[in-house]
């Protein structure tokens, strides 16, 4: 702990002193989640040997990826100091838009897919723009968006399609190619791995690179850490925040398209409640609710923990009545571990 | 990155997208062109009355959508102004009933999924002299709570019927997939199956997220090789379960409750072995029609306690 001090000259500034590699590692935001993920993996492997079979791992990864894709956008947004409660239903809005538009006008489904992207980005833009213009907390703004989208999903689906779930578009032009892009499987060594897993990994890689290696990444950390100070040194805080909300919109579009092309119909009431899972994944992964701290990989590990717990309980054949309790407990433990680890790292 | 450039791109997209629409018509699927106006036969010559249909449906539920359509068709025929209201929470459903009583509607059709929660509200309806019928859930409490008749099936009996059929066909290890944990009707269906086939296992999934439904069912089938049939409790869930069975490589069969067009197709193909449909359309239609008949001439059917 104190070995760095023994050689320190009296004039040395402790802020620029070299940290030991261990302290550096412990200072990473995702370390608590990583420890938790390893512990959970070992635990479920021990109680349910089937958990280790390639097919099971593919299933766990699929379950994790559908949370993880959104957790990437949500993590970046949280690092940028905001959060979004409309994400769960925004996924479904996007899928409904693509499906209903293509169906109603009998056009190639790719047209609907493109329009859904425009709409998802617009929802993100509107969230960010209202937030900046009104200076209301993102909790209120996105809660309002959440409620409005929930109503729109239901109302428009019934008004356009005549039913609360969309008509099946599986026989329409472009469906097969869109399914290949958004909802196919890739065979790796005899195991079918869902394409969402690869989309997820790619998103995490791009997000990590952006955060750690680009100017935009610095802007995100600065906007979340202290928006006023950031603005004072020339960080385009408004653009950064609106961009982050649009990034969440992009992730919602990706997942929405997966939902649509995997099941060919969408129920308008889906998605409610999932926004909390995305936030949980980001928080377990070490993102601070107050912003300025966190990582994209952390959010991915958080989603993986969720996937393991969700499916592990099934593999272990436990009573699922208790699942939500365990999820809550894990959230609490993960955040406490994060806190402790971070304090230790700061002290040393 | 200049600011102007992105706006220009946006404008270009605004022009391009409609152009794409024009050139990209789908050759199959999509909406059928509309044929003529509303069908519908003659409308009854009775005075226009207002009937409230108050259910415990969660918004966006496909089953209740069919109930509502049945009720709407009966309303059209009977010259009825239909107020469709729903809230899955018992207390708030009771408040909806109270509001309908205050508005002085001419009849109330109500589901009794949480009979005790709505009991006092129904007393108010009785005191105000508003006729009540119950539908869907709660047939055992219907008469006691002042409804003059009940339209619906007994979930537990329906479950037992499925169980009997499965047992007769030699299935021993069904997995009953509940999409909403703690939902009385769904739990009763699975309990009915379990009563007939003791090897039945219950699996809970998050009905609001189809990807989680699919991956959880896949996980269950991977770990329970003995499972020989999976039961979905709603048409959209059954279709997702069908995907999951394919993914997991299990040779379990799939059975279902409720019905929609796509599920009917799968049953015809033999991909789904059977379904039990409790005629939701008829429940909605019957409830509204019975209230109309009652208002029109005091006609009533069933185990009515008053006249």
Can you summarize the main beta sheet of chain B?
5 strands, parallel
Supply the helix-strand structural class of chain B. Answer: alpha/beta
| Helix coverage percent of chain B | 40-55%
Strand order of the biggest β-sheet of chain A = 1-2
Distance from N terminus to C terminus of chain A (CA atoms, Å) equals: 5 Å
User: Overall pLDDT of chain A, averaged?
Assistant: 88
Radius of gyration computed on alpha carbons of chain A: 22 Å
Q: Based on the structure, what is the oligomeric state of the protein chains?
A: heterodimer
- Within the largest sheet of chain B, what's the order of strands? 2-1-3-4-5
Q: Quote the beta fraction of chain B.
A: 5-15%
Order of helices and strands of chain A: HHHHHHHEEHHHHHHH
Radius of gyration computed on alpha carbons of chain B: 23 Å
- Shape call of chain B: globular
Discrete helix count of chain B: 10
Share in β-strands of chain A: under 5%
Which key terms come to mind for this protein?
heterodimer; A: 348 residues; mainly alpha; two-stranded antiparallel ribbon; 14 helices; 2 strands; 70% helix; B: 307 residues; alpha/beta; five-stranded parallel β-sheet; 10 strands; globular
Provide a brief overview of the structure.
Chain A is mainly α. Chain A is 70% helix and 2% strand. In chain A, a hairpin with a 2-residue loop joins strand 1 and strand 2 (191-194).
What secondary-structure arrangement, pairings included, does this model have?
The complex is a heterodimer of chains A (348) and B (307).
Chain A: H1 21-26, H2 31-47, H3 54-79, H4 87-104, H5 109-134, H6 138-161, H7 175-182, E1 185-188, E2 191-194, H8 195-213, H9 215-225, H10 227-232, H11 237-263, H12 274-284, H13 296-315, H14 323-347
Antiparallel strand pairs in A: 1-2
Chain B: H1 3-23, E1 49-55, H2 62-78, E2 80-86, H3 90-103, E3 107-111, H4 115-127, E4 132-135, E5 150-151, H5 155-168, E6 174-178, H6 184-196, E7 201-204, H7 210-223, E8 229-232, H8 235-248, E9 253-257, H9 261-269, E10 275-276, H10 280-297
Parallel strand pairs in B: 1-2, 1-3, 3-4, 4-5, 6-7, 6-8, 8-9, 9-10
Helix pairs in contact in B: 2-10, 3-4, 5-6, 7-8
């Amino acid at each position: 702990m104190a070995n760095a001090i023994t050689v320190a000259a009296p004039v040395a500034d402790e802020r620029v002193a070299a940290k030991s590699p261990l302290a550096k590692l412990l200072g990473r935001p995702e370390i608590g989640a990583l420890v938790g993920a390893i512990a959970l993996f070992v635990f479920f492997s021990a109680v349910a040997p089937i958990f280790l079979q390639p097919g099971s791992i593919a299933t766990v990864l699929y379950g994790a990826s559908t949370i993880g894709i959104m957790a990437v956008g949500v993590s970046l947004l949280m690092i940028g100091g905001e959060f979004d409660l409309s994400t769960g239903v925004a996924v479904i809005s996007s899928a409904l838009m693509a499906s209903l538009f293509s169906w109603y006008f009998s056009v190639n489904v790719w047209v609907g897919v493109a329009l859904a992207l425009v709409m998802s980005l617009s929802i993100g833009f509107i969230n960010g723009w209202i937030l900046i213009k009104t200076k209301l907390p993102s909790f209120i703004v996105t809660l309002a968006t959440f409620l409005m989208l929930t109503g729109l999903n239901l109302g428009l689906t019934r008004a356009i399609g005549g039913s609360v779930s969309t008509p099946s578009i599986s026989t329409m032009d472009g469906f097969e190619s869109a399914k290949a892009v958004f909802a196919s499987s890739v065979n790796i060594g005899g195991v079918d791995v869902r394409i969402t897993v690869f989309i997820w990994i790619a998103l995490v890689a791009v997000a990590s690179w952006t955060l750690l290696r680009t100017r935009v990444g610095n802007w995100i950390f600065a906007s979340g850490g202290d928006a006023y100070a950031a603005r004072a040194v020339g960080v385009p805080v408004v653009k950064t925040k609106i961009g982050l909300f649009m990034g969440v919109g992009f992730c919602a579009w990706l997942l929405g398209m997966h939902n649509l092309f995997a099941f060919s119909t969408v129920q308008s009431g889906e998605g409610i409640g999932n926004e909390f899972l995305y936030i949980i994944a980001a928080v377990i992964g070490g993102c601070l609710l107050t912003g300025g701290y966190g990582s994209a990989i952390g959010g991915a590990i958080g989603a993986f923990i969720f996937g393991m717990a969700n499916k592990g309980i099934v593999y272990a054949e436990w009573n699922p009545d208790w699942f939500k309790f365990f999820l809550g407990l894990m959230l609490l433990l993960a955040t406490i571990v994060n806190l402790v680890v971070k304090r230790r790292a700061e002290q040393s | 990155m200049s600011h102007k450039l992105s706006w220009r791109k946006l404008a270009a997209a605004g022009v391009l997208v409609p152009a794409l629409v024009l050139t990209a018509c789908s050759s199959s699927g999509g909406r059928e062109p509309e044929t003529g106006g509303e069908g519908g036969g003659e409308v009854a010559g009775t005075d226009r009355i207002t009937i409230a249909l108050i259910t415990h449906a969660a918004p966006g539920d496909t089953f209740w959508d069919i109930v509502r359509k049945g009720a709407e068709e009966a309303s059209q025929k009977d010259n009825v102004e239909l107020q469709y209201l729903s809230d899955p929470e018992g207390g708030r459903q009771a408040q909806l009933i109270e509001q309908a009583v205050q508005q002085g509607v001419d009849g109330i059709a109500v589901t009794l999924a949480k009979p005790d929660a709505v009991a006092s509200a129904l007393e108010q309806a009785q005191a105000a002299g508003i006729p009540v019928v119950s539908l869907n859930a709660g047939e055992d409490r219907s008469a006691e709570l002042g409804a003059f008749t009940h339209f619906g099936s007994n979930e537990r009996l329906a479950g037992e019927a499925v169980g009997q059929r499965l047992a007769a066909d030699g299935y021993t290890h069904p997995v009953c997939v509940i999409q909403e944990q703690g939902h009385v009707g769904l739990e009763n269906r699975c309990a009915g199956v379990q009563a007939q086939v003791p090897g039945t296992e219950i699996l809970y999934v998050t009905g609001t997220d189809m990807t989680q439904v699919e991956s959880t069912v896949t996980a269950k089938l991977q770990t329970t090789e003995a499972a020989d049939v999976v039961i979905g409790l709603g048409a959209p869930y059954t279709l997702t379960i069908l995907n999951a069975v394919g993914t997991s490589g299990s040779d379990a069969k799939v059975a279902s409750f409720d019905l929609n067009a796509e599920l009917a197709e799968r049953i015809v193909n033999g991909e789904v072995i059977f379904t039990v449909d409790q005629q939701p359309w008829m429940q909605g239609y019957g409830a509204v029609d019975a209230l109309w008949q009652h208002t029109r001439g005091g006609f009533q059917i069933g185990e009515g306690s008053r006249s």
